[in-house]
Amino acid sequence: MQRILVIEDEKQLARVIKGYLEKAGFQVLLAYDGRTGYFIARQEKPDLIILDLMLPEMDGLDVCRALRRDSDPIVADVPIIMLTARIEETDKLIGLELGADDYITKPFSPRELVARVRTVLRRLKPVGSGRIENRVLLRAHDLTLDPERREVRVQGRLVDLTPTEFGILHLLMQHPGRPFSRAEILDKVQGIAFEVYERSVDVHVKNLRRKLGDDPRRPRYIQTIYGVGYKFIDEVVSEKLSA
Fold first, then answer.
1. Could you tell me whether strands 3-7 and 80-84 are parallel, antiparallel, or unpaired per DSSP bridges?
2. Structural contact between residues 172 and 230, judged by C-beta atoms closer than 8 angstroms
3. I want to staple 123 with a disulfide (CB 3.0 to 4.6 A). Which of 88, 117, 137, 163 is the partner?
4. Which H or E element spans position 7?
5. In three state form, how does the secondary structure of 95-162 look?
6. Please, are residues 28 and 18 in contact by the beta-carbon 8 Å criterion?
7. Which residue among 69, 96, 122 closes a domain?
């Protein structure tokens, strides 16, 4: 049973979210302030965190920042869905820049939140059976993407990506040379057509480029197509591994 940590100081809302998630088959942990939530995340290592932006003790942005900098890779890579009552786009983009995978604005439907949780967790599932003969690596010079193990390496160095960042890179590498609009990327990577700012794709791509060491002014991998979106510009070779 997958475990979800809900860090939300509105106790009634937290209990409503907990109820819907439990009906959907998840185990739920609750924290009502940021510091406690961060402590539980480090101790319990949940499969996903639902994180409110406005929290006592330690706000959601600080919690997100601390999680992404944690020395434990399991904690640092945990998927995060941010909840926000703020209407300013800047607040949401800051959360995405810090490594949140998605956000949802209050008030929201608990069913929509459950759907988003399922979508993010679905992106974490291996695409194959795990047997080495079924593994196909995608290579572009010094960049390697392993869909089966959900690993990305640059010059042999393992690069930690959020599920959304991995999904965007995987999508682009599967179709080198083909431009994707921001709306297409959201639809294909998120899996559901949420009402999400398309600019959030720009933030995820910015983070992805930084982690890959890809200069947007002289891109090796991801090129911006102005007025359209993004494409993978390098040639990609599929390499099937055999036992």
1. unpaired
2. yes
3. 163
4. strand 3-7
5. HHHCCCCEEEECCCCHHHHHHHHHHHHHCCCCCCCCCHHHCEEEEECCEEEECCCCEEEECCEEECCC
6. yes
7. 122
The helix (run of H) or strand (run of E) holding residue 167 is helix 163-174
Number of domains into which the chain is organized: 2
**Any idea which residue has 């979210």 for tokens?**
17
Q: Which domain holds residue 29?
A: 3-122
Per-residue exposure over 210-229, b if at least 16 CB sit within 10 Å of its own CB, e if not: ebbebeeeebbbbbeeeeeb
In a domain, 191, yes or no: yes
Cut 0.90: pTM above it: no
- Give every residue of the chain whose pLDDT is below 50, as ranges: 127-133, 193-195, 243
- Check whether residue 150 and residue 95 sit in a common domain: no
Contact 188, 168 (CB under 8 A): no
Residue 136 and residue 118 in one domain: no
Residues 150 and 219 in one domain: yes
**For a pLDDT cut of 70, what percent of the chain falls above it?**
87
Strands 48-52 and 80-84, by their bridges, are: parallel
